[in-house]
Amino acid sequence: MKSTDLLPVSEALARLLDAANPVTDQEVVPLRQAADRVLAEDIAARLTQPPFNSSAMDGYALRTQDAPEIGAELTVIGQAAAGHAFAGTVGPGETVRIFTGAPVPDGADAVLIQEDAEVLDGGRIRTRFTVTKGRHIRPRGQDFAEGETVLSAGTRLDYAHVTVCAAMNHPKLAVYRRPLVAVLATGDELVEAGQVPQADQIIASNTFGIAALIEAAGGSVLDLGIVADRADLIEAAVDRAVAAKADVLVTLGGASVGDHDLVQSSLKAKGMALDFWRIAMRPGKPLMVGSLGAMQVLGLPGNPVASLVCGTLFLEPLVARLGHRQPPDRMAEAITATPLSANDHRQDYLRARLSRDSEGRLVAHSFGKQDSSMMKIFATSDCLILRPPQAPDLPAGAPCPIILIRPFEG
């Protein structure tokens, strides 16, 4: 394949997502575990809220006809508190001391707040404010009525959603299963974090970042561990992903076609249909996409930064699509702090830090060296400057599109 035959990023992403079918499996979870899950069914109220006309304030429940003007005097005949309703009826010239959340007694049609009532001797009060019908009363069903659909299937639940679900008397909710993503790192040179590498070995770092990205996008991770550069071991790991019914298999490294790059050939031996391989992007060119039965396959580069860039651009939206979610909108615009050279046929993603100028505009400060093995600058970057193919020289201060790696509050 010639360099000019590399697949454009936009086409690669479209083909990956077009093949992604959102999960349909459901599971029922306790309400305490439902936050950040996606509803699989519409949720209707099982009761009416509030279930009665309730007082919105501490004060006195009365009949407006008994207080047509300031200075009316009324007799207090009882008390109503939350959870303790007044059993009688408010009659002419009567009032009931009432507290917030208490049912409004029969006969009463307004609440006079306690600051507007003058307490007199003999269990009486005098009004010091004009009383209007319905004032400070929350009518029955003001929030929702029994049988009313309040939340729709597909809603990603947050703290407000679970609160209203509890109020509607739903202790459990039906949600979509999280997409299961199997992650496989390959390479004789890799050892687990915490071990002591030999002189020709390195720590397998990609797995941790990719797993965290998957979980943040709403997926579950099946860690297949590190597999040496042996076809039989790679194929055995693939079998484990298939047996677990993973929705996606993500491989880290080994997807090229060198003598020691056995992932692609091993997957083909297991029946993978290769959709495409090699993308017109930097870093991240050796990206592989295919399918093995119902399982999608995404082969990420072995270089840590290339792996994370591809994870952000391809894996995050894939997991979101499978899990009925919208991926975060990471696109923004900044001005470049330094000149940028003209680009070739590939789409570049330059690691950069952000600041703001005196006018409040975002300013992107690209790192001078952009090697795809340099994890430290990726970890300290706020964004990626997107340089499209054939982009011309860009002077300092020119606008440039950026992809936010993390929220920038500066």
Structure explained in plain terms:
The chain has 410 residues and is α/β, with parallel strands linked by helices. 18% of the residues lie in helices and 30% in strands. The protein contains 7 helices and 26 strands. It has helices spanning 9-18, 159-167, 206-216, 231-243, 263-269, 304-322, 375-379; strands spanning 26-30, 43-44, 54-55, 59-62, 73-80, 94-98, 110-113, 117-120, 124-127, 137-138, 149-151, 172-176, 180-186, 190-191, 202-203, 220-227, 248-252, 273-277, 281-282, 288-292, 295-300, 331-336, 347-356, 362-366, 383-387, 399-404. Strands 7-4-6-5-9-8 form a 6-stranded mixed sheet, with no helix packed on it. A 6-stranded mixed sheet has the order 16-13-17-21-20-18, with helices on both faces. β20 (288-292) and β21 (295-300) form a beta hairpin. The protein is elongated and about 95 Å long.
